[in-house]
Amino acid sequence: xxxxxxxxxxxxxxxxxxxxxxxxxxxxxxxxxxxxxxxxxxxxxxxxxxxxxxxxxxxxxxxxxxxxxxxxxxxxxxxxxxxxxxxxxxxxxxxxxxxxxxxxxxxxxxxxxxxxxxxxxxxxxxxxxxxxxxxxxxxxxxxxxxxxxxxxxxxxxxxxxxxxxxxxxxxxxxxxxxxxxxxxxxxxxxxxxxxxxxxxxxxxxxxxxxxxxxxxxxxxxxxxxxxxxxxxxxxxxxxxxxxxxxxxxxxxxxxxx
Length: 257
Ligand SMILES: [Zn+2]
Ligand SMILES: [Zn+2]
Description:
With about 260 residues, this protein is an all-alpha fold. It has helices at about 10-15, 20-40, 45-55, 60-65, 70-95, 105-110, 120-125, 125-130, 135-155, 160-165, 170-185, 190-220, 235-245. The chain has two domains: about 20-135, no CATH class; about 140-245, no CATH class. Helix 11 runs antiparallel to helix 12 (about 190-220) and helix 12 (about 190-220) runs antiparallel to helix 13. About 20% of the residues are buried. The mean pLDDT is about 90.
């Protein structure tokens, strides 16, 4: 697969010295997508069509709702036309007869006790109709592009290889993603050294975070109250971000002015 390579944002993200430059970029992209979806794109027919089909997940609804400056009208208009697209489909799904063909409707089946088991839920048409998110989908595509750009730099730029090897590496899921993609995008020595470096950076980071988090918890003991925090003040946020991808603490990258 061919990816659009953009290396400058990767360097910028690496310079933030966060627990994962790809998370820093992903978060910046996420904020950009939220602002764009509530801005001029609200009225763009192309975006409208996509929003109508996919809607937004709860996490991104919250971001849209809490966007500084707010745009309740824009958010409301998007949800109105999404609802208008969704309703006829839901009506059809809800009124579909149950598999046995008798009076139990699709609706009854969906909300029945039997519907609580996992197999029934997996077949539920609701998950197809109201389980998608336009921003999650776009973020997934952009994250893969960003990972491909990082691997391209690893392959072509010695200065980057050196800087990356001195960094805190990537979070758990971006380590996994880049190693999987490296198989496709790198070969020979660059592939081997990338996998070795990414794994070593991850285990070193986890060992460091364990120490930092341990001191973070000990600081709550009154006997340690006067001792210095060292690097542990935000160890909780950084540990969560390393294990689960960025989700806590201050924004890892500021938006461009
Ligand atoms: Zn990450
Ligand atoms: Zn989402």
